[in-house]
Write a structure and sequence with these properties.
Number of strands: 16
Strand content: 35-45%
Helix content: under 10%
Shape: elongated
Number of helices: 0
Bound molecules: zinc ion
Order of helices and strands: EEEEEEEEEEEEEEEE
Strand order of the largest sheet: 8-9-10-12-11
Number of domains: 2
């Protein structure tokens, strides 16, 4: 048997189609989005390969079939890709809890970050933070958003000194687990829970 592109074990992140052979059962257990036939594991859905090394599990995460377009009032999740004194730019990865690809871009003005008056954005949000935001204008490119509201704001942030995850120790007050550095953010009430979904 020749080991070519069709035979080799697929790698994490590779795009596959239903029926694509992913791996052999000696190497992996078939997880979500797969089926096993004989000694082989195949993709049951189109999507991206995901591998859990510890569990020796290979899965396929299906891509959303219909395009998800953010509309006014929708809750979105994304990463802060640019921060100036007066606004942040967010690259949106989830719209209404559905993954979107390619991503959408949203800007949030300093006046839309907190109910409290802020001189500059960096008092409440920093580059690389993960935020949950709401679309307030879907007619513009980029979209306009807000972080005002108890469920909106930073849901995960890293220490600007050492890069470790920051823990919430008070309202809008965060502390680094590793180096004990304190930082301020406009956090959501469920900051750090790992929950991306918007609770209603
Ligand atoms: Zn730190």
């Amino acid at each position: 048997m020749t080991l070519d592109i069709f035979d080799r074990t697929k790698e994490a992140g590779e795009l596959v189609f239903p029926g694509t052979r992913l791996a052999v059962t000696e190497e992996f257990i078939g997880g979500y989005g797969t089926y096993t036939e004989g000694n082989n594991i195949y993709a049951a859905v189109a999507g991206k390969v995901s591998i859990n090394i510890e569990k020796h599990e290979i899965s396929v995460m299906s891509k959303p079939t219909a395009a998800v377009i953010p509309k006014e009032g929708d809750i979105v999740i994304g990463g802060v890709v640019n921060a100036s004194l007066q606004m942040i730019t967010v690259s949106i990865h989830y719209v209404k809890n559905k993954e979107v690809y390619p991503t959408y871009t949203m800007v949030i003005h300093v006046s839309q970050i907190s109910r409290e008056y802020l001189d500059t954005v960096d008092e409440a949000v920093c580059l690389a933070d993960i935020v949950r935001a709401k679309v307030i204008d879907d007619k513009t490119i980029p979209l306009q958003g807000t972080l005002i509201g108890s469920q909106l704001g930073v849901i995960l942030a890293s220490c600007s000194r050492c890069g470790s995850q920051l823990e919430k120790i008070g309202r809008d007050k965060l502390k680094c687990k590793e180096c004990a550095y304190f930082e301020k953010r406009k956090t959501t009430i469920d900051y750090g829970s790992g929950k991306l979904a918007f609770k209603t």
